[in-house]
From TrEMBL:
Coiled coil: none annotated. ATP binds at G6, N7, I8, G9, V10, G11, K12, T13, T14, R140, M141, K142, L143, R144. SUPFAM superfamilies: P-loop containing nucleoside triphosphate hydrolases. The keyword ATP-binding applies. Keywords: ATP-binding, Nucleotide-binding. Residues 3-174 form the Deoxynucleoside kinase domain. The active site is at E82 (proton acceptor). GO terms for molecular function: ATP binding; deoxynucleoside kinase activity. The lineage of its organism: Eukaryota, Metazoa, Ecdysozoa, Arthropoda, Hexapoda. One of its GO terms (cellular component) is cytoplasm. This is Deoxynucleoside kinase-like. Belongs to the DCK/DGK family. The keyword Transit peptide does not apply.
């Protein structure tokens, strides 16, 4: 499993689209499901009221990412995924816990569920981290103007960035850090070179 991580808006989706065009087996994040789950837009509810919806949304993110991964696994020797069950907990839920939007029992439950779900995959795991400054990621998010994200502040991006940088220094499975301020084509080239020798 190759997991592509990074702040919101750094270009993970674009990278995975390019890899898919080249024939790599990729699993995109199930954002569509998050915006229409039996007619409910959970991403919107959550972005507008983090304290109320953080636990619901992170539970949805966790199970839907895991489900996509399980569906795709089959006999593929390598799968490239946008995010992972790990980042749901170690990045997003941790940030929400620090902000008081998740209680400790809720955070610990998500952590336990994530461990149970990821334990089902007996595959080698590798992380790729796409890095920009929080300011640049926030700027890109504004340019793409996803309606659900209009309320996300620069401070929120800075908090995620701080957690991502802390995670980077500890994560033994992190194998590639890419400067995602470069154009998407250059990011793609760096990642493709890495995948060829993986
Ligand atoms: N999100 C979240 N918690 C998660 C996963 C995602 O709050 N566990 C939110 C953050 C964004 C939206 O879902 O508002 C999509 O986030 P991603 O950063 O995963 O995907 P992007 O499409 O923003 O990535 P990129 O622009 O890099 O392609």
């Amino acid at each position: 499993m190759v997991y592509v991580e990074g702040n919101i808006g750094v270009g993970k989706t674009t990278l995975l689209q390019k890899l898919a065009e080249k024939g790599y087996p990729v699993v995109q994040e199930p954002v569509k499901l998050w915006t229409d789950c039996n007619g409910v837009n959970f991403l919107d509810l959550y972005s507008k009221d983090l304290p109320k919806w953080a636990f619901t949304f992170q539970t949805l993110a966790l199970f839907s990412i895991w489900h996509e991964q399980a569906e795709a696994c089959g006999n593929q020797p390598i799968i490239i995924m946008e995010r992972s069950v790990h980042s749901v907990v170690k990045i997003f839920a941790l940030n929400q816990f620090k902000n008081g939007f998740l209680s400790l029992p809720q955070y610990l439950l998500l952590e336990k569920l994530s461990q149970m779900l990821s334990g089902r995959f007996k595959r080698r795991e590798v992380f790729i981290y796409l890095h920009t400054t929080a300011e640049e990621a926030h700027h890109r998010m504004k340019l793409r103007a996803r309606s659900e994200e209009t309320g996300l502040s620069l401070q929120y991006f800075q908090q995620l960035q701080e957690i991502l940088l802390g995670w980077m220094t500890k994560e033994e499975k992190l194998q590639l850090v890419v400067n995602a301020s470069q154009g998407p084509q250059e990011v793609f080239r760096v990642v493709e070179r890495f995948l060829q020798v993986l």
